[in-house]
Design goal:
- The protein has one domain.
- 65% of the residues lie in helices and 0% in strands.
- The protein is built from 18 helices and no strands.
- The protein is globular and about 60 Å long.
- 40% of the residues are buried.
Amino acid sequence: MAGDQLTADPAPRRSRGRIALRVAAIYLGARLITTLFLFLAAELSGFQSRMGADAGVGDTVVAWDGTWYWLVAISGYPSSLPLSDSGQVAENAWAFLPLYPYLAHAVALPFGGQWGTGAVIVSLIAGYGASLALYSLLRIRLDEVATLWAVAFFASGPIAALFQIGYAESLNLFWLFCALWCVVRRRYGWLYPLIPLMAFTRPGVLAFSLFLALFGIWRWFHRTREPLRGAEITHIIALGLLAAVAGFAWQFIAGWVTGDPDAYLATELAWRRNWVPGDPSFAPFEPFFAGVSFWFETIWRLPLALGYALAGAGVLLMGAALAFLPQVRRLGVEIRLWSASYLVYLLLVFFPQSSIFRLLVPLSPLWGAFAVPRSRVWRVGVLLVCLIGQWWWIYNMYALGNSTWQVP
């Protein structure tokens, strides 16, 4: 498959400084635009918004989940699960992994201990690191111009506000892109620290375990094209098991501290009750099917069969794009297998709701496919769509806040 062939080493030492500066220019320009959007959203924030009528840009840092990360940093995790008035497990800090909030707290200490300041610094630096790592990952198979455009799409995308607010996504993306680069370059040793870092930053490392399993199978069937040595087999198996263990580690920690083996799962289900009242349960794929039923039958008043048909068609289209679309195939088998693994992970565990756009961010290496066409009109058009989508998300999440996703 021609799309899977590696290009020559794209970054000789003398050009790395130039590349870092170009990526920095793209990233800083995107952050200025995002800051303007956040300022406008704060100005438009009303009494119905979560931030209130007198909000400022600083309020966006600790809005929504930023408040939970701040709470983790200053209060830690509860030793017993809080209960709602109905006696069910209430929303609590166990839903949020510890690395980002504690790192932001440590960074904030020289700046008066203001957690929000540390959060912005960590998110900004990690976002730039993620942009550089994405460049290095995509440049393996794309030319420099296309790769820089992909970085511009990534830095300006619909959810790009995450790079400068109190969310863990930018830090997790940095670990993830570095990990994918390691797999592409067969630098397996670095994955042993990267996998636990991912596991304690954001949920989703189980998808990386599935990715390594699929990658190992692919390597086995293509071992005549690229020799598969015993040491590589050992690394792939060991790293896949490490990712699986790390993916379940937080659940065991939550259960051990609280004395409730289901502490983490019960905490996650508490958020679903914001959408579907009652006592939800969990089984693989059940959240996805429950979400289709909720949106089509309860909210949109449409036939459930239509919802299943459209959802099935969407899954088939995404699978076909990853398997056959030439622009996607240009990115290489590793990115395609990661994207497929992560989508399967979401189908297994995610109840579709307002967080869906944010949870798709780990698919960001696919921005490379949008950058493959050489048409300047196409590339500028994609960038404009990214910026329009970014303003839409910021306006709805911060200017409108609670009033946007209110369930009737």
